[in-house]
Design brief:
Elements (H helix, E strand, L loop, with lengths): L1 H20 L39 H7 L5 H8 L23 E2 L7 E2 H35 L13 E3 L3 H30 L1 H4 L1 H33 L9 H6 L20 H25 L10 H32 L3 H7 L1 E3 H7 L1 H8 L28
Antiparallel strand pairs: 1-2, 3-4
Helix pairs in contact: 4-10, 5-7, 7-9, 9-10, 12-13
The structure holds protoporphyrin IX containing FE.
């Protein structure tokens, strides 16, 4: 009997526990509010027709959340339009901290969109592909020229009876300091601009990342060195780069490389018209643009508001000007190394023979013969073949 009673009691107990878990019918409603429901099933009560309400698009975030809780599109529309929110960051350190997305702008050749996106498009779909193509074209043209025409000129710098000091030790050190800084900047700049497409697939992300970071740091350090040495080069060579007799003829005959005058270089003074174009176009104009835009990106210029817009414009200008400068100096470096016999020795050792001077800078040579220009300007003798300087006594620069 006792067992039967015990069994009946425990059966009744488990029956009532099971009953407690069975969902009650909907209409036997639970008290107001949601209890025990899966959070993902929670759907805000959305007034299905809220968007058709008048002034829906003009609602601010608070109003929108009243009808469509969680819908923050008014805020994001404001952010996308460049609206300024509040930020506790000091304005002098973070001038645009409250602006998440920049206003819409029209940068050259890309569609009207937010400034950050427009800059990205200019960089990735204009500057990189076209800049890269231009560099390849110029290097290709130089290679074809070298393979078809070979080095310019007949005489080496050592040739000829008499010696002429073409570059003083000061001029050469200014030039080579500038050339070295330029080459460091060019290589590190090329890796920063094109490395992701050309080098990263070869090296892999981590190595490429470390390399680019090191080169970026080197670039930031070499920039100011280049700026100073460029200014020194400008003032050092300025007085011999003004237009002079024979420059136009030299240009029209392409320096003796085109037309009937092929093989015979038209006469020129110390620097020919081609070098003067490199001086005014490459050293002065492009040099100034590259240095100024680089200084902005290095945040080295006082009184400039270093916000994103300024940095984007400085970057686009810097990228375009450096590619053009590299194209110009690719030609200069070619002529200054293997493209013209004796040119490299002239800047390396500073002295040339009268045969070389007569062949490439006939008016300069005539001035030296006539004593209008000193054949030696520095106190240092010729380290090369040890021949005496031509004609007139040394000393007056
Ligand atoms: C590796 C790089 C370079 C090499 C091999 C090189 C080579 C030369 C050579 C051989 C000359 C003498 C030409 C002559 O006798 O008339 C020269 C002159 C000159 N170079 Fe360079 N150069 C280089 C980079 C640069 C750079 C980066 C600049 C400036 C940004 C520059 C500016 C000049 C100037 C101003 C002259 C004097 C000619 C003139 O004033 O018109 N060079 N260079």
């Amino acid at each position: 009997m006792r067992t039967v009673l015990f069994l009946a009691f425990s059966l009744a107990l488990s029956g009532s526990a099971a009953l407690a878990q069975t969902p009650l019918q909907e209409d036997r409603a639970l008290p107001a509010g949601i209890q025990g429901q899966n959070i993902t099933d929670v759907k805000p009560e959305i007034k299905r027709d809220a968007s058709s309400e008048p002034g829906y698009m003009q609602q601010n975030n608070g109003q929108r959340n009243a009808v469509q809780p969680g819908n923050n599109s008014p805020m994001w529309r404001g952010v996308a339009a460049g609206a300024e929110g509040t930020s506790t960051l000091p304005a002098e350190q973070a001038p645009e901290a409250g602006v998440l997305i920049q206003r819409q702008v029209q940068y050259p050749t890309v569609r009207y969109t937010t400034a950050g996106e427009a800059w990205r498009q200019v960089r990735n779909s204009r500057l990189i592909p076209y800049g890269g193509a231009l560099l390849v074209l110029v290097l290709g043209a130089i290679a074809i020229f070298h393979l078809t025409k070979g080095p310019i000129g007949k005489h080496q710098a050592e040739e000829g009876g008499q010696r002429i000091e073409r570059f003083t030790p000061f001029e050469r050190s200014a030039h080579w300091a500038n050339a070295a800084a330029f080459c460091v900047l060019a290589v590190s700049g090329l890796v920063m601009a094109f490395g992701r497409f050309l080098l990263m697939p070869l090296l892999g992300g981590p190595i490429f990342g470390a390399l680019t970071y090191a080169l970026k740091t080197l670039h930031n350090l070499a920039g100011p060195v280049f700026a100073v040495s460029l200014a020194v080069v400008f003032f050092t060579f300025l007085r011999h780069n003004w237009p002079q007799r024979g420059d136009l003829k030299w240009l029209l005959q392409g320096g003796g490389m085109v037309g009937r005058s092929t093989g015979h270089e038209p006469p020129s003074h110390r620097f020919n018209a081609g070098e003067k174009l490199v001086f005014w176009g490459g050293v002065t104009l492009l040099g100034a643009v590259v240095v100024a835009s680089g200084m902005v990106m290095d945040k080295l210029l006082p009184g400039v508001s270093y916000d994103r817009g300024t940095m984007q414009v400085a970057h686009m200008v810097h990228n375009a000007a450096t590619v053009l400068m590299m194209c110009v100096f690719a030609g200069h470096i070619y002529i200054g190394t293997i493209g013209m016999r004796g040119a490299y020795t002239a800047m390396r050792r500073g002295w040339v023979g009268d045969a070389w001077a007569r062949e490439h800078h006939a008016y300069w040579y005539q001035d030296i013969r006539a004593g209008n220009v000193p054949a030696q300007r520095s106190g240092q003798g010729d380290p090369g073949v040890g021949l005496p300087a031509t004609g007139v006594p040394t000393g007056n620069r």
